[in-house]
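Quarterly update from the structural biology core.
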Amino acid sequence: MKAKLVYTAQKLATLGFNKGASGNCSIRDARGFVITPSGVDTEVMTADSMVVVKMNGDAEANKKPSSEWRFHRDIYQHHSEVNAIIHTHSMFATTIACLHQDVPPFHYMVAMAGGGSIRCAPYALFGTQALSDAAISALKDRKACLLANHGMIAMGGSLDEALAVAVEVESLCEQYWRLLQITPTPPLLSDGEMQAVLEQFKGYRND
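Predicted structure, tokenized:
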């Protein structure tokens, strides 16, 4: 489990989604969850660097979890179906987040994040309960959200799924950013069209 976390953190760096010690990821554990450490560059992380955190917030002795451990804990408590969480400062997701904009249904793949838009949570100081509360609200009925002036959260039933969601959200944010260079009001799919996509996605998951 810890080795998989290291691999995922390093994969995010390879993709350019995080640089240095930015961003974090975690996986649910019987004790609570295991999360990447605070202030450690991805390239020097090892399995032993990972930190076990209980649901009451107590961290493994002599280790410092990511400063964002609160929203990881709270997401696990609010979403029983989620077993892995990824947080990135990826270029395009962060760019849209700095505009305080939701990603609207300009493309049907927006539904991959669970609904008709990818919400942007209002700004709150990193590492605080206020940020966690904002994220929980933005993630209602969703698999991903943006964090204003900050970055992105993606989640899934596994680290592989959470990574796939993060990759897709970043791609969608890049596409949306490019559209905004052409027009501030790109054409959007209707609520009915997006609902049909969501229903179609259910069928794919059941195949």
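The mean pLDDT is 96.
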